[in-house]
Specification:
Layout: E1 2-3, H1 5-33, H2 36-43, H3 47-53, H4 62-79, H5 84-98, H6 107-129, E2 131-132, H7 147-174, H8 177-185, H9 199-219, H10 224-248, H11 260-284
Antiparallel strand pairs: 1-2
């Protein structure tokens, strides 16, 4: 399947609009804080930064990440007629991330959620409506990822999904039930950026994204690259955010004396960064060569008859 040119142009425009909305909120936060460093620390989820900047920051790590993803998807839509998977992956993740904004406090968050949900739904609909069958050699299907890199990326993504589940189980055991519910649906017990999805809700999104990308990678599906690269980007970004926190609080130099939860945070951060980069590198490489069709043999399955010898023997 390929995507028609009008659909690709429409998808690129929708991605540009989504990126613009994220950029507007980021610039708004930057103007309110006046310090890119403070804004970056708030994106890492550092408790100290959130306490200091509480009520002054609307964006979270998801906003700059969505900005980069939407720009990359827009470029892919303009350059390739095989961008349907990228459009669907970006639209689906945006829908999931912005859905909690419908019941978040603040009219600005509600308006932004409505706009981005409409744009993301349009992105998925455009990718579905603009698909058409390949009708010639110029419409060759996208190559499948190679077996070795694809399986390796799938294993790393499954490990990432298992890490997400482990941290959510730990939070459910340590926190009171009402706070656990708020972590998934939002509530007054959560104090964070207005546009940020609840942490439990984000964990479910990551679990679904990593799982879908891993299954696609194991199957070497043609859409494995789009979902895998998106999952790798989220795995890398969350790992970098956690790594910045453990470095700020100097957990790594005192790793042996640190508490178990702090040690697990360090290991999770290192795996997120290295594993995410590895997934990006494995799935961004050249795919397996497409199968070459066997040419039609008009003289049967054994090919044309052999040429006569020269010079011909007597009686030929």
């Amino acid at each position: 399947m390929t995507v028609t040119r009008p659909a690709r142009l429409t998808g690129a425009a929708l991605c540009a609009a989504l990126a613009l909305l994220s950029a507007v909120w980021i610039l708004k936060d930057l103007a309110a804080l006046g310090s890119p460093a403070d804004l970056a620390w708030s994106w890492t989820g550092d408790p100290g930064s959130q306490y200091f900047l509480r009520g002054r920051v609307a964006t979270s790590l998801a906003d700059p990440l969505l900005l980069v993803v939407c720009v990359a998807t827009a470029v892919a839509a303009l350059r390739s007629r095989h961008a349907a998977s990228a459009l669907v992956a970006t639209g689906s993740v945006t829908l999931a991330l912005r859905l909690p904004g419908l019941w978040a406090p603040g009219s600005g968050a509600l308006v932004t959620a409505l706009l981005e949900l409409a744009l993301a739904a349009g992105l998925v609909g455009t990718a579905a409506a603009g698909r058409r069958r390949a009708d010639g050699p110029h419409d060759l299907l996208p190559t499948r990822p190679r077996t070795g890199p694809s399986v390796t990326a799938g294993v790393l993504l499954l490990v990432g999904a298992a890490v997400v589940v482990a941290w959510e189980v730990d939070a459910a055991v340590e926190l009171p039930p009402e706070i656990t519910v708020d972590r998934f649906l939002g509530g007054r017990s959560l104090l964070g950026p207005v546009l940020a999805p609840p942490p439990g809700w984000l964990a479910v999104i990551l679990l679904a994204l990593y799982g879908t990308a891993a299954v696609s990678a194991f199957a070497r599906a043609r859409h494995a690259r789009a979902f895998g690269l998106l999952a790798g980007a989220f795995l890398t970004a969350t790992g970098l955010a956690l790594l910045a926190r453990v470095l700020r609080y100097e957990v790594i130099p005192h790793f042996a004396e640190a508490r178990t939860v702090e040690q697990m945070s360090v290991l999770t951060a290192v795996f997120g960064v290295l594993g995410g980069i590895a997934v990006l590198a494995l799935l961004a490489g050249r795919g397996a060569p497409p199968a070459v069709p066997v040419p039609y043999a008009p003289h049967g399955s054994y090919g044309p008859p052999p040429a006569p010898p020269y010079p011909p023997p007597p009686g030929w």
